[in-house]
User: Fold Arsenate-mycothiol transferase ArsC2 from Nonomuraea coxensis DSM 45129.
Amino acid sequence: MDSTYRHADLTVDQQHALLTAARTLAEEFAGIFGTETIERFLHTSYDQFAGRAVIANYLPLLAERFARQRLRALARVEGKDDAGVPIVLFLCVHNAGRSQMALGFFAHLAGRRALGWSGGTEPGELINPAVVEVMHERGIDITGEFPKPWTSEIVQAADVVVTMGCGDACPVHPGKRYLDWDLDDPDGKTPEQIRPIRDDIERRVRALLADIGVPAG
Assistant:
């Protein structure tokens, strides 16, 4: 593994963190994916975030988390995932507002009975602080999430893809179930203006859970 991360643009600490992440993922996916696949997914996940200086200190952690999600998706696509729960992918433009609120409600209401992911066609740097605030008002903490892109395996693994304002930039895979939610973009809005959007998203998430047969907790 050591040779994969020896690049001039990585600090010693980042190299060490990525090597540790690779070993962790190798243990988690032992018997499912080999070292080469895990290293490739970790490295390409790192590259997805490397251009955003605002999160430079967290790049290895973000790369590990995103690689884990992508590997889970690939396992589902290749029939190596026996979790048996439905997967819903929420997509918007920056993955900083609407899709994060939807994911927050989905994870909170579905628990372990379903799996939710989110992504953006043009991921932002940070989740909208006003969105974090209004979700906190509902007892849902989304500070652990981060804007991220979507990848082919993630879209393919999803049972339902919910799009919100990304238009033609949203990925289209034949045979996939798509829902398009017409929602205002919370970008630039105050918490007071975002609350109706939040409440609309909650109603839609609850209806979606009922539709796919997942009890809302």
Remarks:
- The chain has a mean pLDDT of 90.
- The longest strand covers residues 87-92.
